[in-house]
Design a protein that fits this description.
This protein is 96% helix and 0% strand. With 50 residues, the protein is mainly alpha-helical.
């Protein structure tokens, strides 16, 4: 019975770990997008002030 409970726990845990990786990946994508927006904003600011 303990082996079955342990196996069910592991099966339930795997999707949770995958979800964490997904959220982490989305966070990296959002961060990269923010960096692009920041760089474009710097270029526009430079063009406006010249």
């Amino acid at each position: 019975m303990k082996k079955l409970a342990a196996a069910l726990f592991v099966v339930a845990l795997v999707p949770s770990l995958a979800a964490c990786n997904t959220v982490k990946g989305v966070g990296k994508d959002v961060q990269a997008g923010g960096e692009v927006v920041e760089e474009v904003a710097k270029v526009v600011e430079k063009e406006i002030t010249e």
